[in-house]
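Q: Here's a chain of 98 amino acids. Please give me its 3D structure as tokens.
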Amino acid sequence: MRELWEQATHPSRGKVTDLGKAMQAHAIGKDLAPYLHPKLAAMELTGENGAPMENALTVEFLGGDPGAEDPFRNLSDEQLMSLYNRVAAHDVDEGGQG
């Protein structure tokens, strides 16, 4: 496959000069790919000791009055996830500089 590709391309510019050989190299690469590169869908991710993966989110608030009531204590899981998603979206929008 690689030899065919080298024969099909210009050595210094890397441009295809022989379309037939390039197509042969592509076909060989396509046929070999499943044997050389595992598919993500074929991989099974597991947690510790083969258990299902667990996702956990821990939120720690720094500063403020330690005796004050937690303003997030009475929020539902859906409300917390909505808040989390908004913060995560902001962090991505800001290039991770949050």
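Q: Can you summarize the key feature?
A: The radius of gyration is 26 Å.
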